[in-house]
Write a structure and sequence with these properties.
Layout: E1 4-12, E2 15-23, E3 26-30, H1 37-45, E4 52-57, E5 60-64, E6 69-70, E7 78-82, H2 93-98, H3 107-113, H4 129-142, E8 147-151, H5 159-176, E9 180-184, H6 187-193, E10 196-201, E11 204-210, H7 211-216, E12 228-238, E13 243-246, E14 251-254, E15 264-270, E16 275-277, E17 288-300, E18 303-309, E19 313-318, H8 320-326, E20 333-338, E21 344-345
Parallel strand pairs: 3-9, 3-10, 7-8, 8-9
Antiparallel strand pairs: 1-2, 1-4, 4-5, 5-6, 10-11, 12-13, 12-15, 13-14, 15-21, 16-20, 17-18, 17-20, 18-19
Helix pairs in contact: 3-4
C-alpha cells in the first residue's frame, strides 16, 4: 500500500480539482500553469478543504468528508517548500532551520547535510536563490515530516542549479524514507528526480505511472506536455562525432553530448522530427532506425500522435493522411527514423 493515498474533489469557481493519487518515494506532479498542481498540494496540506474525498498518510486518516475528519494543518506533519523559499527575513539560516525543528534535531547538522553550513549566520537577503532553497529544504526536513510537498521550488534556478538540487533531493528522500510530492512544469526535471509521475490537466489526472511512460504518452495522451518526447538514458560511449545512449533497452545515436560513459542524461526529441515507416528500411542517412510496434494512436494538434514501443516508448506526430496511408493500427509493426541531430540535451 502506498504511504500517501488521496481521492479529492474540490470546487472553487470556476476551477474543479477531481483527482485520485497514490505516492511513495519521489512522485512528480506535472502540468501547465492552471492544471491544478498547487491546488492539489494545498488540499493535501490542509490549507484548502475538499468538498468530497479522503486523504490517508502512513495509515492515518487526515481527511474524510463522510465522517467529518479534518486534521488541522499544524497536526498533519506535512512539510512544504514553495518556489519562494519563504524564509523568515529577520532570522539567519541557522535560526530558520531551528524554527519548528523536531525535538533533538540540530540545525547545524541539517545545514551541513545540504552543503550550507558556511551560510549558517547569513540572513535570506544575503543568500542566492539556490542557497535559500537549500535552507528551506533543511528547515522542512528538520521538522521530521511524514510527507514533503515541493511546489516548483527550483523553477527560478539555472539548469546547473536545478540539476544539483535535484540530485540532493533524491538522496534526502532516501534518507528520510517518507514520500516527496514534487510539482514541476519541467519534464526534464521530472525525469531527473522522479521514478513516478502524475500528469494533471484542467484539474484531472490524465496519466499516472513510470515517468518515462507518462512523458512519452505511452499511458495515454498528455495534451499539456506538447509534442516533445522526454527520454532518460545512460551514455554508452561519447566521441567527437556522435554519442551512443541507452534509453532502457533502445540504443540511439545523438550528436556529441560531451558526457562521459555512464552519465545519466535527459534527451528532448520533437515528435515532428520522428518519421514512421512500414516494412524494412534500406539506405538512409539517418543514424537511427528503430523497430517497434504501435502502442497508442491519439488525435493531436493538426495530426495524429503515434506512440511506438521500441521498447522505449517514443512518440511521432504524423498527418491524418499519412496515418491512413500507412495503415497504422495498434500493434502494427513499424520503424522509426530519427536523425542524430534531432535529439537535444535537456536541462
Amino acid at each position: 500500500m502506498s504511504a500517501l493515498t488521496a481521492s479529492l474533489r474540490l470546487f472553487r469557481e470556476p476551477f474543479l480539482l477531481d483527482a485520485a493519487i497514490a505516492a511513495d518515494g519521489i512522485t512528480t506532479v506535472i502540468g501547465v500553469s492552471g492544471a491544478g498542481k498547487s491546488t492539489l498540494l494545498l488540499a493535501l496540506l490542509g490549507a484548502l478543504t475538499p468538498d468530497v474525498g479522503r486523504i490517508e498518510l502512513s495509515g492515518r486518516r487526515l481527511f474524510d468528508a463522510k465522517t467529518g475528519t479534518n486534521v488541522p494543518v499544524r497536526d498533519r506533519r506535512i512539510g512544504i517548500v514553495f518556489q519562494d523559499a519563504l524564509l523568515f527575513p529577520h532570522m539567519d539560516a541557522r535560526d530558520n532551520v531551528a524554527f519548528g525543528a523536531a525535538a533533538g534535531e540540530r540545525p547545524d547538522a541539517w545545514l551541513e547535510r545540504i552543503g550550507a553550513l558556511p551560510l549558517a549566520a547569513r540572513r535570506p537577503a544575503d543568500l542566492s536563490g539556490g542557497e535559500r532553497q537549500r535552507v528551506a529544504l533543511a528547515r522542512a526536513l528538520a521538522a521530521r515530516p511524514k510527507l514533503l510537498l515541493l511546489d516548483e521550488p527550483f523553477s527560478a534556478l539555472d539548469p546547473a542549479g536545478r540539476a544539483a538540487i535535484g540530485a540532493l533531493l533524491v538522496d534526502l528522500q532516501r534518507e528520510a524514507g517518507v514520500p516527496f510530492l514534487h510539482v514541476t512544469h519541467d519534464p526534464a526535471e521530472a525525469l531527473r528526480v522522479g521514478e513516478t509521475t502524475i500528469a494533471l490537466d484542467a484539474g484531472k489526472v490524465v496519466a499516472c505511472g513510470p515517468t518515462t511512460d507518462v512523458l512519452s504518452g505511452a499511458l495515454g495522451r498528455v495534451e499539456a506536455l506538447g509534442s516533445e518526447n522526454w527520454l532518460r538514458g545512460i551514455v554508452l560511449a561519447d566521441g567527437p562525432d556522435e554519442t551512443r545512449v541507452d534509453l532502457g533497452g533502445t540504443t540511439v545515436i545523438t550528436r556529441p553530448l560531451a558526457r562521459p560513459a555512464g552519465s545519466i542524461v535527459v534527451l528532448g526529441l520533437p515528435a515532428e522530427d520522428v518519421l514512421v515507416a512500414r516494412g524494412q528500411i534500406h539506405g538512409t542517412s539517418a543514424r537511427n532506425v528503430l523497430a517497434g510496434k504501435v502502442g497508442i494512436l491519439a488525435d493531436a494538434d493538426g495530426g495524429v500522435d503515434v506512440t511506438v514501443l521500441t521498447p522505449a516508448p517514443i512518440r511521432a506526430r504524423v498527418t491524418h493522411a499519412s496515418a491512413a496511408s500507412l495503415g497504422l493500427t495498434r500493434g502494427a509493426p513499424v520503424h522509426l527514423i530519427v536523425k542524430a541531430n534531432a535529439f537535444r540535451l535537456a536541462g
